[in-house]
């Protein structure tokens, strides 16, 4: 219901109502309302001042950090080039420029004018100093006048150069007019950041080494005005005036950057220091004229006054006649509902861009304060001219003028400086004073879009090398596969899987920082060998992938071999060590339909593994043959074993080791046997998955799981419980090579308080002979703690009996192949007899494996063998705590 109609429909006031609505009451309500509004305004003013002070301090801190950021970026770029010289001090102008392009120094360092190298020349100095003449510059264009310039002619720069050389730390010059620019204006003033260059080799650590190995100096010249303006761009310069000066420079030469003269000292001034390269900058900030945001204050005052006046007028209106109240209501309705001035006051307070254009000619009639600040003077210009795409602007106006609404659309809008920014805009037709207008409301979304693009880039790229990551690489590979489907003329392409050899050694010896630096250096080298359109990605720690399009098998092989040679040619220097790097590369040609993403990755991984298995530092092409099928089967088993370890689906069986002459104490001895249970309940013997575990390096994990599981549940392995005398556990060759194995075994025994003498660790003869010195060290530590050691499968490795003299073991287990043929093969009988005799002579216990018949038992007793193990004596059974009927069993 309109305001006028509402007043006309109001009932007649009673005499009591008229008394209460007297002018005195109206005046009282007005006074109270104004006082209340004043109090709210006072509190809002204090809050606005506090917010302004907090924002100024925060922006001053941000200005300090952002003013130093370009200097830090320049120092990092110089440090990277210093590392390049340490690995290769034979440099020319083309190579120097190429390194700068690869490092993307111009993108990383705002205000950069040139990156230069000055070579030390003892015979070319001026004024008795050693000469330093600039030899290389990047970019060379525009900096030609620097080549040949001697730093020794500039005493202050020479002092800074010597300071950087002696400390191996960046130094910075005082502000000075840049030689590349004429006129001496402030816009052409700059500073120079320097870092020494040493000859090839490890980094020098002492002052004498640095002076002796100095071959020159690197420098980056920076133009102050664009460097600092870009660093401080945004909210800092929008809200603050900034003045920066060099405290160590001469008077009159110390000012470096200023948006306005520094005012007299006051509480609004914020002073910060920037210390870098031996110099100190003073950064002074103070708020611009509109330091305190009074928008909310104005809104509170306007709203409070309006409400107070309206309430008082309402009370006053009740003291007049019904006719005057209706007339007053109509006037207020007309004044507040149709006044263009009220419309402008309201929209001036909005933080969005608000524009009003005449729908008849499309020209802008009104723009609020935000629109004027961002777009400039646009009154009288066509609304469509604000759109960077005139076709989109015309379409928006057409939709709005036909009665529709063009709402929440992304569009590029032209700012006052001619640059475009993204905005979310809406356009609709409204009526003002009976005339049609187009109302446009837009909000700047440039920062949100930039943030979204940055997040999208980070999600698809590796943070260290800035290459595509595994997810993005697999997405691009899937796209390439889909483009090939159903196309007979599709060009083939190649998938390369690159795995660095012995990369873990560099991380272990020199640390992960060295490994990261090596990866960056290798990526720069590999990028230089790629063709346009090739996609290089980092798939993991030291694994890379490459998609090479439009190549046949010969071209792909040549590309892969070139990458291998490129990697092999990189000599990586870190501190006092030099490393040679190589890579194993697996290649798959995608030249037929039917390949899936999973197939290609598995084939490439298989080919890479074949390259490593063949001796590393080579390229292997995937071929579907028996060995490849076997490797793929082993890869599948390796994955199934990893899942079994994570889901606790490994099982243990025990088989008793029985004395062939009954012992009076009745002691029980067992050997643990490993099993794997699939998710469907199927149980597999170790012969199915142990080869895969050995090939893919999973045996140390498996062995540690068995050791900890057995020791932690020692009393629940066998029905005899704590009476179990010994439990034998097999150790793989990979576990023996684990430096921490002995510590792990002894710590586990101590943690669960199991006597060490009850643990027997079995090592195969082939492993013992292959790693004799390492095995002896591990065995001696374990035996010293009380553990028993058994030499398993003795005789299978065809080793000399002389090894028994060097191996400190307690038990010899004769390989089952000799025991099985004991009754029919005289040679097997002779070997078993010899092992038993030699073992007893050394005081060792002798165990025969694979005992499967009573006749074999009789022969073993005759030969004096101590123990037997086989189906005729005891069939393997599940350990007690993993049986379904054990209430204390762990959940598998």
Short descriptors:
Beta-Lactamase, 30 helices, alpha+beta, 44% helix, 11-stranded mixed β-sheet, disordered N terminus
Structure description:
There is one protein chain. Helix 23 runs parallel beside helix 25 (741-752) and helix 25 (741-752) runs parallel beside helix 27 (772-785). The chain is built from 30 helices and 33 strands. It has 5 domains: 3-46 and 297-338, no CATH class; 67-241, CHASE domain (Beta-Lactamase); 350-449, PAS domain (Beta-Lactamase, 2-Layer Sandwich), CATH 3.30.450.20; 461-623, Reverse transcriptase/Diguanylate cyclase domain (Alpha-Beta Plaits), CATH 3.30.70.270; 639-882, TIM Barrel (Alpha-Beta Barrel), CATH 3.20.20.450. Strand 7 (240-246) and strand 8 form a beta hairpin. 44% of the residues lie in helices and 23% in strands. The longest helix is centred in the first third of the chain and has 65 residues, at 23-87. The model is unreliable at 1-14, 16-21 and 888-892 (pLDDT under 50). Strands 23, 24, 25, 26, 27, 28, 29, 30, 31, 32 and 33 form an 11-stranded mixed beta sheet that branches. Strands 1, 2, 3, 4, 5 and 6 form a 6-stranded antiparallel beta sheet that branches. The two termini are 74 Å apart. It is of the alpha+beta class and 892 residues long.
